[in-house]
Write a structure and sequence with these properties.
The protein is 15% helix and 35% strand. By secondary structure, the protein is of the alpha+beta class. The strands form eleven sheets. An eight-stranded parallel sheet has the order 35-34-33-32-31-30-29-38. Strands 2-1-3-9-5-6-7 form a seven-stranded antiparallel sheet, with no helix packed on it.
Length: 755
């Protein structure tokens, strides 16, 4: 059975993967030339670029030796365009040039003539060429696909062609990136596709799933007629659990959706395969994916106190802490040993007030319901540091982008309560860019725009639930989205944030790059030192999050400028390439993690995301999402959910509410994560915990199942040790010398090893 299943799986995978590969005309990787700076002559096909650097289009230029460069860079690619492409093509009218994604904007030239700007194909007569190059704040997410008629005079058939891309970077990552770079004839495959984003797999209840095959025909005259097949395979049991086919027609400009419902074990991994064979052309269109699999068991009805066990507050500043407790409601709360000035609301479980005396206070919390009583000791440290564990919360950017508003922020706070996220330690509700009015008040104070009618009332609403509020700004004149930054108004803004009741500030480099004299450490530190001094004078505890994408190795000096956490990387996207490249590159900065100082590899890309009004389910597979959360928890990263919480599905909620996994992230010792194995097919990371146990993540970075082994000698351990499976919250037993398990493609196992 194993062998036959494996052969079948490989055949299907090969069938699916080879469709696009056959259409690639020029493998671009490794052939691109690159130069910083700007000159119109760089577009000229006769320009000699032999002295330019070689560069990969798969990653931003910061990862290829240009770590501190913001501005304009040029890419050039020489390629031969054979006329036989037209003869061999099913459709012979158009050719497409796909260069991937560009951070932030692009102007793309072919043989000296412009063919595209920010994803829009420019006609040969330039009739649709804008007078000025413009693009949105999230233009870097657009796929640059430029389609030309085969008779377009800019094409040189049976000759060498020169593609030149002028990439404009405003900060953070820069240049061409991604995995999609090819030149091909436009084919039927470009008009018929499965839409897996509009109709994701739905978990319908215990062991019940619904999958939808949605075929979209964007051709204006061709009708597809053929056979649609759906097959679902259990990879754990290595057998087919569902298999069906039907005849289907997809008329021009239409969408056809077929539903399939099945029952199968929700804790096991399954993959689905959709294929459609067009009868007339013989072409096969296909897609595949993973069903969500739910590992974490439901919380017990008895009360259980979760969340951070150490909380920091500065003397005399407002204190707010919701006691996170799972279990059936109603719940009654008690607290013994609170410092003077703090009090507990026994019905809401909210501790608030102000305390002036420095010291470490050991407080015993108690939660009781009809099923029992739970206790937990926490430490409240009144001193100079806050954020003694990584902040956990929500940020608006990865779902709403610049369309965030008062209603969406309130909805997020409501959902923290309604879904129970608040009872697992999720605390912050952060609004990102897009809240600022176009002009300051006459006295220079920052004011919110019409989307936020009363910022003070909004923060009061969120605080009433025991949650905290975050806000966004930039040290430059403008934010990344073109709204007002804090430049030359730092003290005023800090006072405004304090007056409104803000608890968290994300301070994004953005336009300050135009203000800084150079890229020296002194210039990198200057705006953050200034805002830190202003926040200290504002009289409120505000977590200070530096966002400058890791420039100047910020993890080495972020604490010197008063940061509580700092971005170590450019913006994350909901792809395996982005998430894994960011997460697995954190080994360089992990040693600088310690209590109150957190490396931030960016926000979580699970659930429905989209960076604007149009959202889609994350493009990470369920296994990749387990890797995402496992790795971020081992790294002691801030955990900021980036999805629309009103669309929170059962799988995503399950992913975010495993208290044993979250406890690794919140461990008060904050010992750095260590990578002890890096191989072509996988990695192993470990994290020593306060109680002497060790958390470990076994990551399969390959495209197929892998048996992975953690040798205890690599942990300087000997003898037998108890192993706890954290995702399943299950004891695996005692093991001598090593622990071995099977890990799915791009997936993870997370365990805890007890001495």
């Amino acid at each position: 059975m194993k062998n036959s299943y494996f052969i079948f799986f490989c055949c299907i995978a090969l069938l699916f993967s080879c469709q696009s590969k056959n259409d690639i005309v020029i493998p671009a990787d490794g052939k691109w030339k690159f130069k910083t700076g700007d000159s119109a002559i760089f577009a000229n096909p006769n320009y000699n670029d032999a002295s330019w650097d070689s560069i990969s289009p798969n990653m931003v230029w910061e990862m290829q030796g240009y770590s501190m460069y913001n501005g304009i860079g040029w890419y050039r690619l020489h390629f031969y365009l054979p006329e036989k492409m037209k003869k061999n093509a099913w459709m012979k009218d158009s050719i497409q040039i796909i260069i991937g994604q560009v951070d932030d904007w692009d102007e793309t030239f072919l043989n000296g003539e412009i063919i595209g700007q920010n994803g829009v194909t420019i006609r040969a007569d330039r009739s649709n060429l804008p007078a000025k190059l413009t693009g949105g704040a999230d233009a870097y997410r657009l796929l640059r696909k430029y389609v030309l008629s085969v008779s377009d005079p800019r094409l040189r058939w049976n000759q060498e062609n020169v593609l030149a891309v002028r990439a404009i970077d405003f900060g953070g990552g820069g240049g061409i990136y991604g995995k999609t770079h090819f030149i091909s004839m436009v084919d039927l495959k470009d008009f018929l596709h499965f839409d897996t984003e509009k109709y994701p797999v739905e978990y319908k209840g215990l062991n019940q799933f619904q999958v939808k095959a949605a075929l979209i025909n964007s051709h204006n005259s061709f009708e597809f007629k053929g056979t649609l097949s759906c097959r679902i395979i259990s990879t754990d049991h290595q057998q087919t659990v569902f298999d069906t086919s039907l005849n289907l027609s997809v008329p021009p400009g239409s969408e056809q959706v077929k539903e399939f419902t099945l029952r199968t074990d929700q804790t096991m991994r399954h993959v689905y395969f959709f294929s459609f064979r067009d009868k007339k052309s013989g072409k096969v269109f296909s897609t595949s994916g993973e069903l969500p699999y739910i590992l974490t068991p439901p919380s017990p009805p008895e009360p259980r106190i979760n969340g951070a066990s150490v909380i920091g507050v500065r003397p005399g500043n407002d204190f707010l802490f919701y006691i996170p407790v799972t279990g059936v409601r109603p719940i009654t709360y008690k607290a013994q040993g609170l410092p003077d000035g703090l009090s507990l609301d026994p019905s809401k479980g909210i501790i608030s007030g102000r305390t002036a005396k420095r010291g470490e206070y050991h407080v015993v919390l108690e939660a009781s319901n009809s099923k029992g009583i739970a206790t937990k000791e926490i430490r409240i440290i009144v001193g100079d540091k806050i954020a003694l564990t990584p902040p956990m919360g929500w940020n608006s950017w990865n779902c709403w982008g610049l369309s965030v508003d008062d209603e969406k922020v309130r909805a997020a706070a409501d959902q923290f309560v309604n879904t129970g996220l608040i009872d697992h330690g999720w605390t912050y509700i952060n609004m990102d860019d897009g809240w600022e009015a176009p002009q300051r008040a006459r006295n220079g104070e920052i004011v919110p725009n019409e989307k936020f009618p009363d910022m003070k009332e909004l923060t009061s609403y969120v605080h009433s639930k025991g949650l905290k509020v975050g806000i966004y700004s930039s040290p430059g004149p403008l934010t990344c989205g073109g709204f007002l930054g804090s430049y030359q108004h730092e003290m005023q803004d800090a006072k405004s944030y304090a007056r409104w009741g803000i608890d968290y500030l994300k301070y994004d480099w953005c336009s300050y790059g135009r203000i800084a004299k150079d890229n020296s450490l002194e210039e990198l530190k200057k705006p953050y030192l200034l805002m830190r001094k202003c926040l200290d004078k504002a009289g409120r505890d505000i977590v200070f999050s530096l966002c400058q994408y890791g420039m100047g190795e910020v993890w080495k000096w972020g604490h010197e400028v008063g940061g509580d956490c700092w971005r170590t990387t450019g913006d994350i996207e909901d792809t395996w390439e982005s998430m894994s490249n960011i997460g697995f590159s954190q080994d360089v900065c992990a040693p600088y993690t310690r209590p109150g100082y957190w490396n931030d590899p960016d926000m979580l890309v699970v659930g429905w995301v989209g960076w604007g009004p149009s959202l889609h389910p994350t493009r990470l597979t369920p296994s990749e999402q387990y890797t995402h959360i496992t790795l971020w928890c081992l790294l002691s990263s801030p955990l900021l959910i980036g999805c629309d919480l009103t669309k929170l599905d059962a799988f995503t909620l399950n992913l975010l509410t495993n208290d044993e996994v979250l406890a690794v992230n919140q461990d008060p010792a904050a010992k750095p994560a260590q990578r002890i194995l890096k191989a072509e097919t996988g990695q192993i990371w470990i994290k020593p915990l306060e109680d002497g146990s060790i958390a470990a993540g076994l990551f399969n970075t390959s495209e197929k199942d892998q048996n992975m082994t953690l040798a205890f000698k690599d942990l300087h351990l000997s003898g037998k040790h108890k192993i706890r499976n954290l995702w399943r919250q299950k004891d695996e037993g005692s093991f001598a010398d090593a622990f071995e398990c099977k890990v799915p493609p791009h997936g993870a196992e997370m365990i805890r090893i007890f001495p």
